[in-house]
Amino acid sequence: MTTSELLIDDLDYADIPRCASLEKEMFADDSPWPATAFRAELNAPYNKYFAARERPGGDVVGYAGVSTLGSAGSFECEIHTIAVAPSHRGRGYGRALLVAMLDVADDCGAPVFLEVRTDNSTAIDLYARHGFVRSGIRRNYYQPSGADAYTMIRPATAESVTPESGTHP
């Protein structure tokens, strides 16, 4: 996805130091992911990670990752992370990253699960606008801060899987 000011592409190993730096900046109170965690996520064959940039080859200003688990006809997707640098919030980067992950789920007809801090109304509103509903709460989910998280789910889109075969169209 591209516009004159926004590019969503694949996150790659060269982006890991920037992502780890952004993690420290944004999630200092809740165990930010180190570079080794990003490397492990990129190595997992069932994960897909995206980068938001202002231009091709530019620095990462946001990132997001989703897992696809299961088998044809019963896939599920889980959003692992979505983050946008504070300096780039409010410009549509989070929405674009979310849409890229939802496209992954739609391609295999999967419902999507995620956790979000109960005090993050901006993210909760974004998810609700894209079909997510609250399905539960996880007390003390984020550590070490002890912040609670809502579990949210977006059902699979019906048109993504052919009823006859249970496989991708």
UniProtKB/TrEMBL annotation:
Coiled-coil annotated spans: none
Segments forming domain N-acetyltransferase: 6-157
Assigned GO CC terms: ribosome
Swiss-Prot/TrEMBL keywords: Acyltransferase, Ribonucleoprotein, Ribosomal protein, Transferase
InterPro entries associated with the record: AcTrfase_RimI/Ard1, Acyl_CoA_acyltransferase, GNAT_dom, N-term/lysine_N-AcTrnsfr
One Pfam match: Acetyltransf_1
PANTHER family for this protein: N-ALPHA-ACETYLTRANSFERASE, N-ALPHA-ACETYLTRANSFERASE 50
Protein name: Ribosomal protein S18-alanine N-acetyltransferase
Species of provenance: Gordonia hankookensis
Gene name tied to this protein: rimI
